Prior knowledge:
This protein is mainly alpha-helical. Helix content is 46%, strand content 0%. It has two helices and no strands. The two termini are 26 Å apart. The model has no long low-confidence stretch (mean pLDDT 81).
Amino acid sequence: MHGALRAAGIPAELHVFEAAPHGLMPPGISEDEQLLQEMHHFIATDCPAP
């Protein structure tokens, strides 16, 4: 998906979390906090307000 978006000229970032399960990680681990911070940053900066 990332490659297809970039090939179409759409800005995209790929974040890889090693050994992560599909979907969100269990609460309380550092990778979970990092993922949530990145999701909040994306919503705050890249999603237009209604």
